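During the reporting period the student researcher (J.K.) took over the structure-prediction task from the postdoctoral fellow and processed the backlog of single-chain submissions. One of the processed entries is reproduced below for the supervisory committee.
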Amino acid sequence: MAAIRSMSRLLTSRSLSSTAKRCYSEEMNFTFASGNQIFYDGKSVKQVDVPSFSGSFGILPKHVPTLAVLRPGVVSVYENEGAVKKIFVSSGTVTINDDSSVQIIAEEAHPVENIDLSAARDLLSKAQSQLSSAANDQAKAEAEIAIEVGEALVKAAE
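J.K. obtained the following structure tokens:
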């Protein structure tokens, strides 16, 4: 029993000392890419807001390391110069590392200003039609995903 307590204390003090050694920065190195475009490649930014299945959240320098799945929605990037870039993502991942670097890899991503509202509404309507005519569970699931993306596209374009 004493050996278990000693091991526990050793592991606890090692965990605490490795946590204290993390190299946090005042800047956030940001990389954001999708299959169709690279938006940021290691640029320093102030803040990034992302849509996640666990809820939307903001990322600042010194953010706790995190891995999250992106849901369809708008990623807002607050650049150091004061500009705010809004980019729609269909899905993807966000990785926040202990060195204050952040990577977003999106399945598809497009600047919000390039989204055509009428085309987004048409896409949503087609997805809703696909759901009503879905013949099996797979077709139903695919239509539900398309509806979720379509609704987020319409909301982003409005």
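The committee noted the following: The beta strands are 28-34, 38-50, 57-59, 66-70, 73-79, 84-89, 92-96, 101-106, 109-111.
J.K. will present the remaining backlog at the next meeting.
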